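Note to self: keep these together.
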Amino acid sequence: MALKNVIGIDHAVVMVQDLDKAAENYRQLGFTISPRGTHSAHMGTGNYTIMFDPDYMELLGVLAATEHNAPARAFLDQRGEGIERIAFTAVDSTAGAEEIRARGLEPIGPTDFERPVTLPDGTISAAKFRTFMWPTAEAPGGVRIFACQHKTPETVWIPELMKHANAAKRIKQTLIATPEPAKEAADLGQLIDREPKAEADGAVTVPSGGDRAEFVYLTLEQLGKRYPGVPLAGLSERGGAALVLVSGDLAATDKALGSAAVRSGPAICVPPAKANGTLLAFVAG
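Structure:
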């Protein structure tokens, strides 16, 4: 039985050392960045979002050490910056947590939290969420997974924040490096009730649900062959990750990325060293 309360990829969390510097870096890459958000005290984190449709990226930084953000701090200490976890959209986080509990897994949460949001007209509102996580040990390819229920989507998907100079529209794929693509893909498939599919180059794809972005597990060598000429320095052999983003206009993408752009076949890429530990690959929509 497929999970009823968890649908496809909602957002990718890029863990960064210096939140404001990371936001400025992504701004220089042509992304429209939300105002800085500060999460509830027990979370101890702050963020900037980069909104697409129907998904987004989140730049996340630790503002104060708490028990809740211990895994995120460990990630930064051990691996440096990069994609630390991927969120699914939860229809109902409470019910979703019970679904995975019924399968013998102990969920973390559900947890309620919020952050203040400055709306385009200058008024202050709140973005409210209820999340749950799969057990910390369940991290296929070294990337944790969780589910996020948006209680106030209107304060997250703000039209003014969804237009980007680099023409980014949505996430098409999340690529995760691992020495054992088939095993890690099978692990994820079991956790989210999706069927892995082997690709011709040895990578293994796992659909995330609906029309959302898919996961691709592959070795670092296979990743390099997909994007020849793009330096992969900084990506770990297990857990190094890339996002394939759909561009509405590759000429605009190329112009906005400027000197950070690296042409690789049909894609325009930003190496991980220039995107806070994450390889970005823009492709035509």
